[in-house]
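Work Package 4 report. The design task specified in the project plan requires that, given a folded chain encoded as structure tokens, an amino acid be chosen for each position. We show below one input record used in the internal validation round.
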């Protein structure tokens, strides 16, 4: 065997030995560190799984957020559509519970219903003139039908008439149904009809003119204000009739008081003349007795004549009367005062009338002021507390949200030296509260009653047990 062959054999043997050594070494290393290697692989695998799970969660969360945003946008869109539909339905339905009462601002200042009626007639004539002059509707395109412009104009005229009939019908319904509580909504109803009908005419390029719409709105407003003016006139006439009845009643009372005073004066004069005639015939102690009676009759005659003169003077003074300040705590609350006027000879009679069955409790009087110019005094009170008036629509409802102290300060500033009762008696109201509170008081068992409870029943029926049925 030559040297190269021997060298190759040696190299093979060394290589094999090295491989065997490496395998044995690897086996020893795996035996010693295999667990550590497995943990690292597990940690790496867990980290990889966690990253995948986090990415998946982020993807799901992003998709969920997109879904939520889409649902929110869809909800807002549906809610807007619902609100618009509800509002448009409200324009057609007159339900007092659903009406949002708008404040109507008057557009005209005519003084009488006849003036409003004339203006209504004029507005309607203007509408007819616009329709006759083909200015109520407008077309932006000159149509032709089968190449004929005349047929196109005929089609345009018919379509314009159709739109005008629809719009006029909507407007007539609004004008017929306008009232104090829906004037603003009826204006909006006409505007909505104008937009909707013009939208229908969009394909043909035909639309109702804004000038014609404004005339319809003017008609609606005139009709509303005309009805309001009629209502105000009726209220004014009712108030005048009520005031006339009150004045007649006061005048009758004054006449009756004058007649009673005249009768009393006549009786006193006759009795005095008789006593004076008797004293000339009397003797001794009877003279003194008759003289005392004469003095009494003279004083009675003087008072009767003063009362007669006062009644005559009151009957001649047409502006004299009493301004009363009253409250009704049980009906209206503590800070509500009624400041009114009566020409009755006895003002308490008027207050008793106000305390009739129309209110649950009677009125309490805080002050009654006599004045020879009672209307001016009442007007001064009303003007001083105008900003605190409760009813801002009907000024004849003389109720004000004021305190007794504020009224006292005003009276002091005007130099009115009248005793003002600050505390309202409110007798019926306070007694009602006491009775109501008494009814809701809890019923408690006294110790004496508890001790008297039979032992046989005490042992057989515990707390919350059902009592034995009676035989």
């Amino acid at each position: 065997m030559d040297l190269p062959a021997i060298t190759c054999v040696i190299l093979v043997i060394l290589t094999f030995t090295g491989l065997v050594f490496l395998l044995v070494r690897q086996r020893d290393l795996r035996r010693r560190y295999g667990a550590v290697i497995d943990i690292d692989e597990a940690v790496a695998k867990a980290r990889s799984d966690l990253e995948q799970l986090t990415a998946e969660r982020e993807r799901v969360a992003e998709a969920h957020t997109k879904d939520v945003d889409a649902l929110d946008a869809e909800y807002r869109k549906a809610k807007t559509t619902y609100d618009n539909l509800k509002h448009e339905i409200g324009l057609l339905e007159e339900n007092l519970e659903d009406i949002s009462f708008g404040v109507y601002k008057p557009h005209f200042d005519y003084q009488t219903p006849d003036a409003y009626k004339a203006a209504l007639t004029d507005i309607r004539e203007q509408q007819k003139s616009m329709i006759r002059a083909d200015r109520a509707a407008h077309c932006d395109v000159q149509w032709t039908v089968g190449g004929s412009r005349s047929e196109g104009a005929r089609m345009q005229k018919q379509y314009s008439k159709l739109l005008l009939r629809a719009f006029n019908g909507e407007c007539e319904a609004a004008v017929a149904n306008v009232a104090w509580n829906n004037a603003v909504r009826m204006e909006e109803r006409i505007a909505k009809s104008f937009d909707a009908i013009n939208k229908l005419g969009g394909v043909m390029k035909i639309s109702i003119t804004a000038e014609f719409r404004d005339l319809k709105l003017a008609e609606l407003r005139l009709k509303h204000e005309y009805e309001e003016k009629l209502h105000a006139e009726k209220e004014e006439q009712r108030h005048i009739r009520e005031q006339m009845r009150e004045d007649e009643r006061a005048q009758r009372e004054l006449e009756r008081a004058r007649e009673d005073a005249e009768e009393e004066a006549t009786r006193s004069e006759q009795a005095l003349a008789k006593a004076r005639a008797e004293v000339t015939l009397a003797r001794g102690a009877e003279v003194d007795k008759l003289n005392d009676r004469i003095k009494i009759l003279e004083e009675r005659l003087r008072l009767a004549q003063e009362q007669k003169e006062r009644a005559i003077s009151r009957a001649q003074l047409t502006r004299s009367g009493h301004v009363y300040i009253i409250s009704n705590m049980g009906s209206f609350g503590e800070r509500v005062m009624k400041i009114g006027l009566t020409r009755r000879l006895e003002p308490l009679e008027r207050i008793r009338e106000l305390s009739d069955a129309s209110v649950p409790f009677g009125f309490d009087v805080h002050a009654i002021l006599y004045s020879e110019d009672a209307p001016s005094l009442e007007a001064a009170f009303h003007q001083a507390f105008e900003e605190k008036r409760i009813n801002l629509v009907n000024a004849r409802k003389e109720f004000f949200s004021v305190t007794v102290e504020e009224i006292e300060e005003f009276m002091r500033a005007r130099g009115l030296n009248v005793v003002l009762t600050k505390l309202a008696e409110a007798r019926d109201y306070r007694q009602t509260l006491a009775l109501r509170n008494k009814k809701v008081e809890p019923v408690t068992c006294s110790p004496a009653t508890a001790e008297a409870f039979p032992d046989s029943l005490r042992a057989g029926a515990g707390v919350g047990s059902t009592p034995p049925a009676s035989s």
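The CA atoms of residues 88 and 192 lie 8 Å apart. Validation will be extended to a larger panel in the next phase.
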